[in-house]
Amino acid sequence: MSRGVSFENLPVDLQHKSVTQNESTADILSQLPHERLQAVLEKVPEDDVEVRKVLSLLKKPEVVDNEDVQQRRVRLAEALITDEVDPSGISNTAEVNTEEEDEEDDEEFFTPATSELISARKFLVKYSLERSRKRLQAEMQRHQNFNIKEELLSRRAELERMANLELAGSQLVSTRPISAVSLSPNNDYIATGSWAGDINILNSQTLQPLAQKLDSHIGKIGAVQWHPGSNNQIISCAEDGLIKNFQYLNEEGDLRLLGDLVGHERRVSDLKYHPSGQFIGSASHDMTWRLWDASTYQELLLQEGHAKGVFCLSFQCDGSLVCSGGMDSLAMIWDIRSGNKVMSLTGHSKPIYTVDWSTNGYQVATGGGDGLINVWDIRQRDGGQVHQILAHRNIVTKVQFSKDDNGKKLISCGYDNLINVYSSDNWLKVASLEGHTDKIISLDISNDSQYLVSGGWDRSVKIWN
C-alpha cells in the first residue's frame, strides 16, 4: 500500500504551457508582482506633497537621495504592498491628515487670564460704564441748552485767542534734544525727559528748574507723564526698555525713584496712565503694548498684533478702549475690558508716531511720518476717516486734543519746526506757531487751554500763551 506524496513534494511543472497560451507558468507568475504594483500605483496620488505625507504616515523616509518624484511614488506603492495597506484608503488618510493640520493652524492661541487681569477687567467694566454714562448725560444737557448764536460767538472768540498765541518763555534744559514734556494736573509744573536720559521738573510760569534726575534712564527717554490725580507722581520710559515711577518732593526739590516696571524686551517709546490712575499702558519696539498695575508694577496684559514696533498709544476718556499706533503704519483700537481688537485704522503710508483721543469719546487722531494727521470716528463702520489734514512738511511727532471744550481744538507739532492749531469744526488751521530753531518732538496743552509747552531738538522747553 502506497503511503502517498506530501504537499511539499508535489511535482510542479513551471514550464507547462496550456493549449491556449504561449507563456509558461513561470512567466505568468513572474508578472504577478509587477501587475499588483501597477494596480497599486494607479491609486497612489500623483501630487508629490501627498506622497510624502503618506510615506510619513507609514513611518517611511519622505525623501531618499537621488530619488525623483516617480521613483518616490513607486517606493510608496511597494511600501503599501509590503505593509499590506489598502491603497484605496490612502487619499482619505491624506485628506484627514491635512484637515487635522488645518484645524491645528486655525486654532486660536489662548492663554488663560490671571486672577489679577480678571479683577482688573471687572473694575474696567464698572468704571467705563459709569464714565460713559456721565459723559452722555453731559452731552444731552449741552444739546438741550444749545444756542447756536452763543456757540458760534464762543468758538470764534476761542479760535481768535488761539490764533494769537505767542512765545512767552524759553529755557535750555538738557545737553540733548527734549523728547517729552508733560504738565501736572494743576498746571503748576512741567516734567521733561531728554535723549540724555535725564528728567527735569520746571515751574510752568517761569520755567525755573525745580528738580533734576540725571541718568534716570540709559538712552533716550520716550515719554513722561504725571499721574492724573497727583502733582507729585511721574512715570517715564526709555530706550533701556524700562518704565520708572518717580515721586516729586517739591519741598526738597528732589525726584525719588519708587520702582521699575520690567518686562519689555526693547525700547519703550510711549506710556500713558489710564484715566482711573490705577493702570499704565506702554508701547514698545518689541511689537507689543502692555497694561500694568500702577501700584504693584505687575504686568497684567501683553498684547501683540502689530507687524512692527508699537510707537504710541492712548486711552479713550471712558477708560474702555486703547488705540495703538505702530511702525507698520497701522493704528489699532482694542477693548481692554475683553482683550479684543475692535478695529484697524488704515490710512497712513509711513509709521504712526502719535495718537490721541478727543474728550468727546468717539474721535481719535493719528499722526505719522507721512506728515499727515488722520481723524477717525469710531461710531462709523471700521472707524471711518472723518478728515485727513496735510499737517506738516515732515514727520508729525505729536497730536493732542484740547481737554476743556469737548475736543474743539487739535494741536500738533512736527519736524518742520512748527506747532499748528486746528479747529475740529472743519479741521482748518487757525494758527501756526514759530519759535523753535529745530525739530519739535513733544508738546502738551494746559487743562484750561490757556497755554502750551513744547520741547525739541534745540534742547529747549518753550511756553506759549
Automatic annotation (TrEMBL):
Bilayer-spanning residue ranges: none
WD repeats: 261-302, 303-344, 345-379, 433-465
Keywords of the record: Repeat, WD repeat
Composition bias, Acidic residues: 97-109
Disordered, as annotated region: 87-109
Statement: the UniProt record of this protein carries the keyword Repeat: yes
Occurrences of domain Pre-mRNA processing factor 4 (PRP4)-like (ranges): 46-102
InterPro entries tied to this protein: PRP4-like (IPR014906), WD40/YVTN_repeat-like_dom_sf (IPR015943), WD40_PAC1 (IPR020472), WD40_repeat_CS (IPR019775), WD40_repeat_dom_sf (IPR036322), WD40_rpt (IPR001680)
A Pfam short name: WD40
Protein name per the record: Pre-mRNA processing factor 4 (PRP4)-like domain-containing protein
Organism annotation: Saccharomyces eubayanus
